[in-house]
Request: fold
Amino acid sequence: MRVEFDDVTVTLAGRDVVQHASLTAESGHVVGLVGPNGSGKSSLLRALYRAVKPRHGRCTVDGVDVQHLTGRQAARAVAVMLQDPSSDFDLSVEETIMLGRIPHHTSIGGDTLHDLDVAVGAMRLTETTDLASRMVATLSGGQRQRVMLARALTQESPVMVLDEPSNHLDISHQHELLSTVRGLGRTVVVALHDLNLATQYCDHIVVLDAGRIVATGPPQQVLSPELIRATFRIDVQVLGDAGAPVFAFRRLDSHAATPSAIPSPESSIRR
Amino acid sequence: MARRTLLLCAGLAIALSALVVVSGAVGSVSVSAAQAAQIVLGHLVSGMPWMIDGSLTPLQDQAVWQFRVPRTLLAGLVGAGLALAGALMQVTVRNPLAEPYILGVSSGASVGAVLVIAFGSATLGGLSLNVAAFAGALAACVCVATLARKDGTLSPTRMILAGVALGTLFSAITSYITISTDAQNAVSVLFFLLGSVSAASMSSLIGPAIALLVASIVSLFLARSLNALLTGDESAVSLGVNASRLRGVLLVVASLLTGTVVSVAGGVGFVGLVLPHIARIAVGADHRRMLPVTILGGAVFLMSADLLARTVAAPTEIPLGILTAFVGAPFFLWLMRRGGAERAGFGR
Reply:
């Protein structure tokens, strides 16, 4: 299903955290949102899964404004892998993953065979089968993220939203997760900090800075050293061949950026 | 876990029926357990031979059917109602320390009851204690909901803070009236605050029974959504559950249930806070399993407590609230220290 953000402005506490953002995720594509902290990535995603209502503009799935759907309809269309599954009352991994079936049920009653099949499949994909009876609170950050992915997969929605899905994962699970998500064939909108992962797994990159979209396009066109320097205020070097570029980062020269009011340790030693 | 829940519920249901019979047999008028069972059955099913053959005295019949049975049934309804209201409140404000009284419902009810006790029903236009207490509970609930509402949403933190602040205000009013009234009235007030089911009659069961039935059906239908709400508003919304609206519904259901119960039985403590936790320790936090266990467990707990309340120091009665705390607190602490409590989130 095609996802479209049409001139979306999101206001939180009187501040426009996203301003006139328009972008399209073609059906089956993985679209990555990148940008510094506070650039509006999460807020843009929240407008898609209806945690916040845009002050202006609309988010559509298959041409339908998500605000016009019921909660359950929206949750069947768009599943979200949230950053942190916090709870004061602990659920087991199995119970947490089964939460993904809520939008498919109207009322009371047990879980159907199909419910269980979907959950088992999701657990296999995310390697969480062995954790099934553990309590979520006892898991490591990375294990929790895999459980949250399994929960989102269990929702069986054609569109998936992932907000920083890999920040607690080890390097191999980061790649595992993104290649799993990519292999689903669903439309995915994902906020990522790691530009190398973004380049490798996204069909399309959207760069946000201070609530505005500053660039969109295929990763290798968009993520130029100049743009990265301007947006993230970091020095970047592109390694590897043109087919699979890898970014190496270094702090921008502090002397050039801020005239030294504080003498650096070396200079004081030399003196 | 589903099997365990079923077994546990069956066990609790059996305990519940046994308690009705046992409490029918215990008291100053001597009645055997078999006779108590006969009397209960005889009133439920017409045409039982033993009801007319003279083997039971009218005094026995009266003691069992007009005093002991209504009383134990009321204890069951109150226990079940408070336990359910506690479970709903805990998920509504997403706080393990929440209980039915956290939003000031019981403090509001106390003000209503104390006004009637101190000034007499006649001065208040013939208002009965029960009605005044119920009105007080509702007034408190409406105040809290109004104060906690902002931009069309009910925030859990604002609900708790408004409830605690208003509760304190109401308690001050109650204390002031209690202190300024006659000593005789002060004792009545104390008895109301501690809770009692000793004034039960068959007709006093109707209100709590209806409230419990409606609340149970509504909350079982919402059980899945309640699970979603446990994981936070953002998460609930992503699962298609309107967290704010659900919270509003839960607030109304839990408050009406609590108000009805408190207006009949006073402020019985402890059940509403602890029974939901015991149910979570037994079967986990999934509401589809923990709600039935909470409801049945609350009934069994308070029926046992009331049986003890009227027997351990007979002929004197111990107020129910004292007994629930005295028996319940050590039991709960033992359960909390035991293995398996992490199922209820006690591992952190």
Q: What stands out?
A: The interface with chain B takes residues 46, 49-51, 70-76, 78-80, 82, 85-92, 95-96, 99-100, 102-103, 105, 107-108, 110, 135, 137-138, 155 of chain A (CB under 8 Å).
